[in-house]
């Protein structure tokens, strides 16, 4: 952390448990960040807090220190099989990150930490919970699944932490959150913390409904984005996005760069283009299995992979150190997502660059983004005549067996028939043959219809007299469907 990012308060100034102080020293934390200096006095005094600060300013360490201190000074309820603290996160990646931070800070404390999240390890996570847990960290869906199986109880909860609360709303978890909160002890009997990079009206409503008179603490900045981020926006045509991206990345020589797109298909296509042009690239999207996702993030953090193409699944809550550049290949539709994407760089007081492409498809989002962040993004220019012609995309390097969508220079996907000239010509020939056969089919249908009409008798046409009809009695006429027979009068 840089000096201007920290306050003049130290962790040693607070009356924290000795084991916790040891973990803080091992993590090389000495001075508090502004959000930590603002919320810790309130939390250590037993007051609930709803905190807002920019991404990467130390919110996780703040609520973990307060949680461990509360557990150390409290006492577990007798006869209750369940965790004493519950930490809810919107994504698996964020839950894993919190778990690792909790292990680092609370490694010397006698508390059992358990992780529960979807996508993998169902039975192993269940066995861990059955053995007991003091602190349960995870995503709402998997935790509710285990809770409904009565593997644990929420009656012993002393600390409740909700991280990235606005993201919970975005992902549709709010009903799950309320389900869990209503099965805990009353808010007055527990310490409640809510943290997020943005505190919307609906988040504040949730806080006041399920927290005990929380103190709202906001660490304001001169802008919504981190001041140390150098922002710029290009206005490329759709067909120039890939050439411009390849040119920028080869000029930047990325060591640790995050590139965001809006869909998983675009992520796979862009990743293939970059691999085909000699850039070491990995793709992180919702379809990537959990174990592979964790491996990719670890390789990116360690520097083994220099470029990570991702959807917004990686945009919230992850602390990836030393990200030098963030590139928005697609501008996000939600302005808040822009803030969280850009927040991946310039963390903990460091500097960083954020580059955005306002192409023909996504340029409409730029105005809302600039209005939300409170400033205009500087415009960067380029000479389209000097853009390189990119090499062909490399889908084999992705490691996936299934077929990949193809993307042209205009950034649009191509179907198999559009990519394969032979398949395209066959499709055209088949379509032309079908068109040539259409008059024959039509004439045949008309002939059959005319023949059927000739076989239908007229309404008033008498049919043959029935056999053995009594003499003098008029023959009965057939009644066509939908007509009513008139009874004889006489």
Folded structure, characterized:
Helices cover 38% and strands 13% of the residues. The radius of gyration is 33 Å and the shape is globular. The longest helix has 35 residues, at 421-455. Strands 3-4-2-5-6-1-7 form a seven-stranded parallel sheet, sandwiched between helices. It has a six-stranded parallel sheet with strand order 8-13-12-9-11-10, sandwiched between helices. It folds into two domains: 3-218, P-loop containing nucleotide triphosphate hydrolases (Rossmann fold, 3-Layer(aba) Sandwich), CATH 3.40.50.300; 229-422, 3-Layer(aba) Sandwich (Rossmann fold), CATH 3.40.50.300. The model is unreliable at 400-406 and 458-490 (pLDDT under 50). The chain has 16 helices and 15 strands. It has 490 residues and is of the alpha/beta class. The relative contact order is 0.10.
């Amino acid at each position: 952390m840089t000096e201007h990012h920290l306050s003049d308060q130290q962790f040693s100034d607070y009356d924290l448990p000795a084991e916790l102080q040891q973990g803080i020293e091992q993590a090389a934390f000495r001075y508090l960040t502004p959000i930590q200096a603002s919320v810790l006095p309130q939390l250590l005094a037993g007051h609930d807090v709803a905190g807002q600060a920019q991404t990467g300013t130390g919110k996780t360490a703040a609520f973990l220190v307060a949680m461990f201190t509360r557990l150390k000074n409290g006492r577990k309820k007798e006869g209750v099989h369940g965790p004493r603290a519950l930490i809810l996160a919107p994504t698996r990646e964020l839950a894993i990150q919190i778990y690792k931070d909790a292990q680092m800070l609370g490694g010397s404390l006698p508390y059992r930490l358990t992780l529960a999240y979807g996508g993998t390890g169902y039975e192993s996570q269940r066995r861990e919970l059955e053995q007991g847990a003091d602190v349960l960290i995870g995503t709402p869906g998997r935790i509710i699944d285990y809770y409904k199986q009565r593997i644990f109880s929420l009656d012993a909860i002393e600390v409740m932490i909700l991280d990235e609360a606005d993201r919970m709303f975005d992902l549709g978890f709010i009903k799950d959150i309320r389900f869990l909160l209503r099965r805990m002890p009353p808010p007055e009997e527990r310490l409640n913390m809510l943290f997020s990079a943005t505190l919307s009206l609906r988040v504040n409503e949730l806080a006041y409904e399920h927290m005990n008179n929380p103190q709202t603490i906001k660490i304001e900045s001169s802008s919504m984005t981190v001041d140390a981020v150098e922002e710029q926006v290009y206005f490329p045509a759709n067909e120039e996005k890939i050439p411009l991206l390849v040119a920028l990345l080869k000029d930047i020589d990325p060591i640790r760069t995050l590139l965001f797109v809006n869909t998983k298909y675009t992520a796979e296509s862009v990743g293939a283009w970059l691999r085909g042009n000699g850039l070491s690239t990995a793709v992180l999207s919702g379809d990537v299995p959990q174990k592979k996702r964790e491996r990719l993030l670890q390789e990116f953090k360690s520097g083994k992979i220099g470029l990570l193409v991702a959807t917004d699944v990686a945009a919230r809550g992850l602390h990836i150190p030393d990200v030098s550049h963030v590139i928005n290949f697609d501008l996000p539709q939600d302005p808040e997502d822009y803030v969280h994407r850009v927040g991946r760089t310039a963390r903990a007081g460091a500097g960083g660059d954020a580059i955005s492409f306002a192409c023909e498809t996504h340029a409409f989002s730029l105005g809302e983004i600039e209005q939300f962040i409170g400033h205009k993004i500087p415009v960067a220019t380029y000479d389209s005549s000097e853009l390189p012609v990119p090499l062909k995309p490399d889908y084999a390097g992705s490691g996936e067996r299934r077929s990949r969508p193809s993307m042209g220079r205009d950034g649009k996907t191509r179907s198999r028939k559009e990519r394969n000239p032979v398949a395209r010509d066959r499709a055209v020939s088949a379509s032309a043959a079908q068109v040539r056969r259409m008059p024959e089919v039509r004439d045949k249908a008309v002939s059959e219809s005319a023949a059927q009409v000739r076989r239908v008798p007229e309404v008033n046409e008498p049919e043959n007299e029935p056999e053995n009809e009594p003499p003098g009695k008029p023959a009965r006429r057939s009644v066509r469907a939908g007509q009513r027979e008139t009874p004889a009068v006489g």
